[in-house]
Amino acid sequence: MPYNEIYWQREEVIPKKELEELQLKRLKWIVRHAYDNVPFYHKKLKDSGIKPDDIKKRDDIVKLPFTTKEHLRENYPFGLFAVPKESLVRLHTSSGTSGKPKVVGYTAKDLENWTNMVARCLYMVGVRDYDVFQNMVNYAFFTGGLGFHDAAELIGAMVIPAGVGNTERQVQYMADFGTTVIHSTPSYALHVKEVAEELGLFDKLSLRIGCFGAEPWSKNTRKRLEDTFGIKAYDSYGLSEMNGPGVAFECPEQDGLHIWADHYFIEIVDPETGEQVSEGERGELVLTPLTKEALPLLRYKTGDITFIMDDECSCGRTHPKIHRILGRADDMIVVRGINVFPSQIEHVLMQIPEVGDHFLVVISRRGSLDEITVKVEMRDEVFTGELSDLQKIQQKVQRELQKELGLRTNVELVEKGTIERSKGKAKRVLDLRKDL
Ligand code: DLL
Known about the structure:
This protein is of the alpha/beta class. It contains ten helices and 20 strands.
């Protein structure tokens, strides 16, 4: 049952002071829980000369050591779990580009908390029991499928467990079933948009809300999705290690993502030194779950780059806001000494009207010099056959990219349909230097 017609749970508007007290109480609990039940943390804290009782105020969190993805992998599969296997009711996994997958477990209480957090997010952007919710993400090991499914059901919406693929059928169902809310990765949504255009079904759709996440996307992509589908599109952030989606989500203001601080302790640190940065400065997001029974990760380094925004929000929620993710520390490409995030490239491309929705960044090496080539799909109507027109567009794209990146790139214009479409998280970068 919702708390009232605006908020799913009372905790969304908990007074700041109360929220901080709750955080401290829960922080003490989670540190004690990890110390008592996870040998890895027991040893780590002991080696650093820290006892759970040393956590007396919120700032004492800096005394704790960090946890990294490597720690999860080294302790594959269940080494960091704090409860016996029989207390678990679900497992998910997340595979990165290398090494063993990360395995995450949930007790019944963890699932209840998680589902409520995702429900908070959906309810916040206006999803209600009369909605038809088409969930267009992978339902298997990925947390996005069941995470959203359970939450939308809890609100009472009618959920279509569509999964990914069969895009023509997805669009047909959207029209036939009267889908009002869609959830997918933004890159898949762009593909769905393309197929809906081809099928000429836009007039038959009754969409009003889109929830997109699991990969970086830009404000300009938001605009494209909102304009073509006639929806409001919201950014959704999460990671398997912190349950999955539902960690942070945009409110109707669409200006930053509220991060549920009664369940997660937030820090922004310098990725290199691990020192907390000053207020409002960008850095790596570090999260400590405050209620997680099965997997109490302490000071988990997410690898995601963002900053904490001003905390007053006119939606009334008291939870802090983070800026949409600027990139991942390990997605950063270093080309001729300059740091480039694929999301910067997306940001530039999506504001050029002649450019289509798909692109690929190819990094190669000529002699001893790195080269960056951006393959960009054009809109069909731009291919007039006039070489000079294409040259003008190519130069424009090159100029705009140089302005943003401070780096000269090769730009290759390609026809619509050339670049492989993604169903889940898009692969935007092909780094050929690794094969040299
Ligand atoms: O992607 C959970 C999720 C599912 C989030 C559905 C949102 C919607 P993982 O597969 O473990 O979990 O990947 C987590 O994806 O550390 C970020 O690098 C990236 N990521 C997730 N959401 C966003 C977002 C899910 N909104 C990793 N913007 C995270 C940018 C995102 N990056």
